[in-house]
Design goal:
The chain has 323 residues and is of the alpha/beta class. It is built from ten helices and eight strands.
């Protein structure tokens, strides 16, 4: 099963193709199309959320769906909004949950209902909604749903913008500003890669795990022309490395975008543990998610990328892992 709210794009098609590849030609792939009112808060875009069922049917069936299940609100919630709902718990109150109170309770409630109605063996979700994916995995595990949850990598435009049904709201100028979300994430990833390269270089030297001031002497013994510069870089990496440097690199891009015309209004930038979406400590080792949410004009966008600090922790799930 691939669950959507419609307004399908290449990101959804990628999910459907992944499902088809997993189950083979003889397998059955159902795509759901349902704009869930429970996960929209006051003042959000429920009424103007794009509804393009005819185009959705064409895309879904062309990508490999066996059937599209597009129920009405009355079919999903007979008798009105349900009195009994799934509660997202502490993880659902962070980041997106803090910005959109009740959003994750509504999301999990409809996901639970649609899992019951379609009874899939496999459920595919995009990693762009990383916190949603983590909460669905938690619900499936905690409440013993007999389904395997599969995360699929975020699909991006050539310029890096993550595909989203809400991208169609953006004017040309707003879209240029919105590119700052992915640029910020990539800047954080590049800072981490540079840090890890410096650490690997330092660790490969004699006494590579000694204190930074001893590394200059080790480099000199190797007779390298750039010994002093390398030693200084290693020392700087030791002092400025880690999650703090990654956050700072991403923040610098977003601060510039706040001065653009039209400006980007930041909701949050967070570097979190994928297990519970709490902020990671400065000495964090293992998997992490660098996540951002911002508004450009009247459109709110989210994005994230997975990162790994040093040797991965066996307890930390990767976003693409199945549950």
């Amino acid at each position: 099963m691939v669950m959507t709210m419609g307004a399908l794009h290449e990101g959804h098609a990628t999910l459907i193709r992944a499902a088809r590849a997993r189950v083979g030609e003889d397998g059955f792939v159902v795509v759901t199309v349902f704009v869930n009112p429970l996960q929209f808060g006051a003042g959000e875009d429920l009424d103007r959320y794009p509804r393009t069922l005819d185009a959705d049917l064409e895309l879904a069936l062309g990508a490999g769906a066996s059937v599209v299940f597009a129920p009405s609100v009355d079919e999903v919630y007979p008798g009105g909004e349900p009195q009994v709902r799934i509660t997202a718990g502490p993880m659902g109150e962070r980041l997106e949950g803090a910005s959109r109170p009740g959003h994750f309770d509504g999301m999990l409630t409809v996901v639970a209902k649609l899992l019951h109605l379609t009874a899939p063996d496999l459920a595919f979700f995009g990693q762009k909604d990383a916190q949603q994916l983590a909460l669905i995995r938690r619900m499936v595990r905690d409440l013993n749903f007999p389904v395997e949850v599969v995360g699929v990598e975020t699909v991006r435009e050539e310029d890096g913008l993550a595909l989203s049904s809400r991208n169609r709201y953006l004017s040309a100028g707003e879209r240029r500003t919105a590119l700052a979300l992915s640029r910020a994430l990539f800047a954080g990833r590049e800072r981490l890669a540079a840090q890890e390269a410096l650490r690997a270089r330092a660790d490969a030297l004699p006494n590579g795990r000694d204190r930074a001031e001893n590394r200059a002497e080790a480099l000199s013994r190797l007779g390298e022309a750039r010994a002093a510069a390398d030693a200084h870089a290693v020392a700087q990496a030791a002092e400025c490395a880690g999650p703090g440097a990654v956050r700072a690199a991403a923040r610098a891009v977003l601060d510039e975008a706040a001065k653009a015309e039209p400006p980007l209004t930041l909701d949050y930038l967070a570097l979190v543990d994928p297990a519970d979406f709490t902020e990671v400590a400065d000495d964090h080792a293992g998997q992490a998610v660098l996540a951002v949410a911002a508004r450009v004009g009247s459109t709110r966008l989210i994005d994230n990328i997975p990162l790994s600090f040093g040797p991965p922790s066996p307890e930390s799930p990767t976003l693409g892992a199945a549950t």
